[in-house]
From TrEMBL:
The species this protein was found in: Paenibacillus validus
Transmembrane segments: 12-33, 53-72, 93-116, 128-149, 161-180, 192-214, 235-260, 280-300, 312-333, 345-362, 383-403, 409-431
NCBIfam families, per database record: matE
Top-level taxonomic group: Bacteria
Places the protein is found: Cell membrane
Pfam families xref list: MatE
UniProt-recorded name of the protein: MATE family efflux transporter
Organism placement in taxonomy: Bacteria, Bacillati, Bacillota, Bacilli, Bacillales
Length: 455
């Protein structure tokens, strides 16, 4: 078995991704915990603001997602120079998009905060947080795109090590800038925002250095002028439906967060704390789903379609076992963990009522992620977006409003709607993959059959 084949096995890809995502989860948890020492209002601002930031990153995430699929496919087909070109063009595009978003969020922070329908008392905090973290959005663009490109070459370990370093820097800066230790000013929520931007800057610099040598030929200054229109058009062909799907999900979640905000600050804070807890289960499943996407794209590029087909089911089965264990742990330990973040009796009561529903939610989310990523890996992104758009807005958003707001079920109704959405989407993508229709109709990369190499 060649070194490339060894790097492209499911678990070789998945465990570094899991550790990287887990460290990112810890970073978010550290933020939530440290900010909670300021006030629950500050936690609510961080929660809804981060939903916004996730939503606006879809532009460069779409390009990076399409590029990641094509890079893995080209490496599978042993077309390494094409993979290198795709990586370079993608990073350049993400820098341009990230700079545009940074300018918009920095200068439009007050207007954006008002659009989120926060309580009036939260607006000053939200404006400050959005201006600082949003102003550094170009760093988020660079960091996430570089990580995607590097992972798609089969190197999932380097982004993991970078994540470790970023966590250390972030927590230290949080401690210094939030609380004003060792003579630093006590900046509160503003300090948390500055810490986030600074740690991302450090991570971006390190990833740029690694990316320069990630392919068979190192990056050169002349490469910044590189542009291959047909190849970039292919990136966009896969990327735009993927981006539309991501946009649909993030904006639907933002609307749902707005529904939660209507329920009051306590419900919003409880949802933010629960989102932090649920992230543990999510990252377990997502690491498997992302790993199988890279693996299937690689196998598909090498012309090994039957192996690619079976890989989706193996990954789904493994992922279900993992997320169920994680959800059960949260169910058992949830009360102790929530009490660690807040002592507010109302927030605790709301959070505890949602732990059982999380046990139902996570398996549906796992199937949806794994099978959806399998379709994305072979370029069948249009089906994913059509399926997602319908379910997210009709089921997730529509039912959230009907059950959560109109019927008065509150967060219980909103969670019920999210469960229905995940299971419906998971069912539809599984049926699509099982039919093999997408696998057979997808365009096979040129010369893949001729260059396929078996271990």
């Amino acid at each position: 078995m060649t070194d490339t084949h060894k790097k492209m096995t499911l678990w070789a890809l998945a465990w570094p991704v899991f550790i990287e995502m887990f460290l990112q989860f810890l970073l978010g948890t550290a933020d939530t915990f440290m900010v909670s020492r300021i006030s629950d209002d500050a936690v609510a601002v961080v929660g809804i603001s981060n939903q916004l930031f996730n939503a606006v990153t879809i532009l460069f995430a779409a390009v990076a997602g399409g590029a990641g699929v094509l890079i893995a496919q080209r490496i599978g087909a042993q077309r390494n120079e094409d993979a290198r070109k795709i990586g370079i063009m993608t990073v350049k595009a993400s820098i341009v998009i990230g700079l545009g978003l940074s300018v918009l969020l920095y200068f439009g922070a007050a207007r954006v905060a008002a659009l989120l329908q926060l309580e009036v008392s939260l607006l000053p905090l939200a404006k400050t947080y959005i201006a600082i973290v949003g102003g550094g959005m170009v760093l988020t663009a660079v960091m996430s795109t570089l990580s995607t490109v590097i992972r798609s070459t089969g190197d999932t370990r380097t982004p993991m090590f970078v994540a470790i370093g970023m966590n250390v820097v972030h927590i230290i800066l949080n401690y210094l800038l939030i609380y004003g230790t060792f003579g630093f000013p006590a900046l509160g929520l503003e300090g948390a925002a500055l810490s986030t931007v600074m740690s991302r800057l450090v991570a971006s610099i390190v990833l740029i250095i690694v990316w320069a040598g990630a392919f068979s030929r190192r990056l050169e200054w002349s490469d910044w002028k590189l542009y291959d229109r047909p190849m970039f058009r292919e990136v966009l062909r896969i990327g735009w439906p993927l981006g539309l799907n991501m946009a649909s999900w993030f904006f639907s979640q933002l609307v749902i967060y707005a529904f939660v905000a209507k329920l009051g600050a306590s419900a919003l804070a409880a949802r933010t704390y629960m989102n932090t807890l649920e992230s543990f289960c999510f990252l377990l499943g997502f690491s498997v789903a992302l790993a199988v996407q890279i693996q299937i794209a690689y196998l598909y590029g090498a012309g090994r379609k039957e192996e690619a087909y079976r890989s989706a089911y193996r990954a789904t089965g493994s992922g279900l076992v993992i997320v169920l264990i994680g959800a059960l742990l949260l169910y058992v330990l949830g009360e102790s963990i929530l009490s660690f973040f807040t002592q507010d009796a109302g927030i605790l009561a709301i959070g505890l009522s949602l732990l059982g529903l999380n046990l139902i939610l996570q398996p549906g989310k796992m199937v949806n992620m794994a099978m959806g990523n399998a379709l994305i890996a072979i370029g069948d992104t249009r089906f994913v977006v059509y399926n997602g758009f319908f379910s997210m807005w009709i089921v997730a958003v529509g039912l959230s409003y009907v059950l959560g707001i109109q019927s008065g079920w509150g967060l219980i109704g909103i969670y019920t709607a999210m469960i229905a959405d995940e299971y419906l989407r998971g069912l539809l993508v599984t049926v699509r993959w099982s039919s093999k229709k997408a696998l057979n109709k997808s365009l096979t990369p040129p010369d893949a059959a001729q260059v396929a190499v078996h271990p």
